[in-house]
Amino acid sequence: MLGLWRKIRRTGRVAQSAPPRPEGDRPVAAMGLGGSVQIRHVDAGSCNGCEVEIGSAFGPVYDAERYGARLVASPRHADALVVTGPVTRNMAEPLRRTFDAVPGPKLVVAVGDCARNCGVFAGAYGVTGAASDVVPVDVEIAGCPPRPEAIVEGLRKLTGR
Ligand code: SF4
């Protein structure tokens, strides 16, 4: 055990140094979060490409948690929703209800082109619209799918770290 502690002490921190803080204004509702944001993810009709990249953003390489962003299971424990995909007819009401369940002040992040403007699914018969057609969106992250770096950058705008 002592050997392990010595090794940890000798090795020190191995994480890459953080990239500079993203530019741009922090949403007003994020000001009171104190550098930490609890996030509930809602897949409103995604192809799952955005989910793969969100998984990477919270993985050990990009590590969004070190900037204070954390995924939670319940909207009642969340400060923000991360919405992916175009909002399908079946998901419009669940998305609305999930938004209502988040205690205020709350934020919504639209991740990916589909959540921003329906992307490649624009005009499809099963699509109600973009995320902003159903709930108010504070931050948009472009890309199909967005790179994990872009997702982490967008979440850092909420945490301010
Ligand atoms: S933005 Fe691209 S990767 Fe994300 S859900 Fe739409 S089609 Fe899939």
UniProtKB/TrEMBL annotation:
Q: Which residues form the NADH:ubiquinone oxidoreductase-like 20kDa subunit domain?
A: 47-158
Lineage, top-rank taxon, reads Bacteria
**Keywords, in A-Z order:** 4Fe-4S, Iron, Iron-sulfur, Metal-binding
UniProt-listed SUPFAM superfamilies: HydA/Nqo6-like
Q: Which cofactor does it need?
A: [4Fe-4S] cluster
Query: InterPro entries annotated for this entry?
Result: Complex_I_20kDa-like, NADH_UbQ_OxRdtase-like_20kDa
Q: Which family does it belong to?
A: Belongs to the complex I 20 kDa subunit family.
Specify the protein name.
NADH-quinone oxidoreductase subunit B family protein
Q: Which organism is it from?
A: Kibdelosporangium philippinense
Q: What is the lineage of its organism?
A: Bacteria, Bacillati, Actinomycetota, Actinomycetes, Pseudonocardiales
